[in-house]
Design a protein that fits this description.
With 105 residues, the protein is α+β, with helices and mostly antiparallel strands. The protein contains 3 helices and 6 strands. Helix content is 39%, strand content 28%. Helix 2 runs antiparallel to helix 3.
Length: 105
């Protein structure tokens, strides 16, 4: 997953930004808008994604749906903006986000 996702720090405002091809734009936007720069929240989500339980997590702009081995990121206000990916790939993206947060500390 890290091959399609680039996590950088914005030189102007200092915030983390996720860059991805259009196919993975929902993932990049979800990291920025719903996970944000909160390491505790990111760790909690990572724990849930790595777990086996199904469930939903409603954020600011997206809902994360965990079902079996699949994770879905669905925009709350745009039914056409969604992404389905293996939970292990989402876990990798969250690990990358956490690593970028740790570099700031």
């Amino acid at each position: 997953m890290t091959a399609v996702l680039e996590i950088v720090r914005d030189p102007v405002d200092g915030h983390l930004r996720a860059r991805a091809p259009a196919l993975f734009r929902a993932l990049a936007d979800w990291l920025e808008s719903d996970v944000q720069e909160d390491p505790a929240h990111a760790r909690l989500l990572l724990e849930q994604v790595r777990g086996e339980a199904d469930g939903e997590h409603v954020g600011n702009a997206y809902v994360l749906v965990l079902n079996g081995t699949e994770a879905r990121i669905e925009a709350l206000h745009d039914p056409d903006e969604r992404l389905a990916l293996p939970r292990r790939d989402l876990a990798g993206a969250l690990q990358g986000w956490l690593a970028a947060l740790d570099r700031r500390a």
